[in-house]
Amino acid sequence: MTQMDTGVYSDPNETPPLAQAVPLGLQHVLAMFASNVTPSIIVAGAAGLAFGGPEQVYLIQMAMLFAGVATLFQTVGFGPVGSRLPIMQGTSFAFVGVLAGVAATQGLSVALSACIIGGTIHFLLGSVIRHLRWLFPPLVTGLVILAIGLYLIPVAIKYAAGGAAPFQMEAESFGSLMHWAVALSVVVVALALKFFTSGTTSSAAILIGLIVGYILAYLFGMVSFAPVANAAWLTGITPLPYGFEFSLGATIAVTLVSVVSAIETVGDTSATTKAGAGREATDEEIAGATYADGLGTAVAAVFGGLPNTSFSQNVGIVGMTGIMSRHVVTIGALVLILCGLVPKIGAVIASMPLPVLGGGVIVMFGMVAAAGLNVLTEVTMNRRNMVIIAVSLSAGLGLNLVPTAVQYLPGVVQTLATSAVAPTALVAILLNLLLPDEV
């Protein structure tokens, strides 16, 4: 087993000792757990399913199960499918707006059927994505990664302050000193262990920070184990639980968002290799990641799961720990599959309060943005490129922060325009093609 002088595992095929790999894999799960199940809760609510009812619980279980399955597509792979990189898959927030609208007006049958078709089309993009890679030089991919990180940072702050959904942010406890004490304890412990210790404690710094925050939250009375007691031991899976019902409009909407998801995956794949190994992703890795993305979405939708995508916060873990081993993330995938099949295990993780997770993702989302900046350091900062950066970020983040600015656009277009990633990528690509190079 070969290691870099820094002791960091920079080869995806290297495997840390099991005593180190298991907590690192669990750390990947904890980092994405809340974000992975939240879209299912939102879409289930939009579809009118009872909160805590069996149908909603089923959707949450499928989110965990097929996030694990899709991650195995990425890390283990087969044939051309899979990047064979430490990329964690999870339920995508990018689809929430579209799917919530479709579920509310046409039902979950139409929404999930659109995901099956959209995922299949997304899978087919893998065969051509390498031929389109010239559209994504470091200037564009760096901007996409940076936009992803900057878009996610407010989510981290909302988690840290004690909520994510609007009704949670309106609660009196939102932003309380107790919430911030818990979140900041995670940040302080994670940073202290990362930079002032070595070995396993340094590599698992975020996980240990989350555990310390969890204990503090328990002492503050913020943890409830009631969901664990009420959860079942096993869950079954049902193909096409809501049937199959085709809608052209819903399919087009989901497919358009899938293109955005594919762009995000290109960015996450590039960020992973850059953060973990200091190199660019290969064409095969980009194509394999896209295949796995689309296949994971289609297979999940067959059994009632929402679309999957690469999770940027886990790119942050790779950057934070320097552990590039894909086998570490494979362990995380197996944990997710176990959580999906055994609800009690998932309930234990789900009992972790949002401020605890918020503290962890403040660091990780920030690392995603930093990875984007790292890619941009390869770009010559002349007037042309600075204008492209300025206009792209202004368009992408500006419309995301002020979504009512495009409230009269058609629903699908409005969703894409306010996604932060899509307008940033589109403007950056167009300007990079149209503006002449400076001499």
Task: Outline the structure in words.
Its main location: membrane. Keywords: Cell membrane, Membrane, Transmembrane, Transmembrane helix, Transport. There is one protein chain. By secondary structure, this protein is mainly α. The chain folds into 2 domains: 18-139 and 224-352, no CATH class; 380-439, no CATH class. Helix content is 68%, strand content 1%. The chain is built from 19 helices and 2 strands. It has helices at 18-46, 54-75, 96-106, 108-125, 138-161, 166-169, 177-196, 200-203, 205-219, 226-230, 248-277, 283-302, 312-321, 326-341, 343-350, 354-376, 383-401, 411-417, 421-434, and strands at 89-91, 308-310. Mean pLDDT is 83; it is low at 1-7.
Summarize the structure.
The protein is mostly helical and 439 residues long.
Secondary-structure map with pairings?
Layout: H1 18-46, H2 54-75, E1 89-91, H3 96-106, H4 108-125, H5 138-161, H6 166-169, H7 177-196, H8 200-203, H9 205-219, H10 226-230, H11 248-277, H12 283-302, E2 308-310, H13 312-321, H14 326-341, H15 343-350, H16 354-376, H17 383-401, H18 411-417, H19 421-434
Helix pairs in contact: 1-2, 1-3, 1-14, 2-12, 2-14, 3-4, 4-11, 4-12, 5-11, 5-16, 5-17, 5-19, 7-9, 7-16, 9-16, 11-12, 11-13, 13-16, 14-15, 17-19
Strand order of the largest sheet: 1-2
Radius of gyration: 20 Å
Series of secondary-structure elements, N-terminal to C-terminal: HHEHHHHHHHHHHEHHHHHHH
State the share of residues found in helices, binned by percent.
55-70%
Structurally, the number of domains stands at: 2
Give the N-terminus to C-terminus distance in angstroms.
47 Å
The class by helix and strand makeup works out as mainly alpha
Please tell me the overall pLDDT. Answer: 83
**How many strands, which pairing sense, and closed or not: the largest β-sheet?**
2 strands, antiparallel
| Number of E-type strands | 2
- Quaternary state of this entry equals single chain
Count of DSSP helices?
19
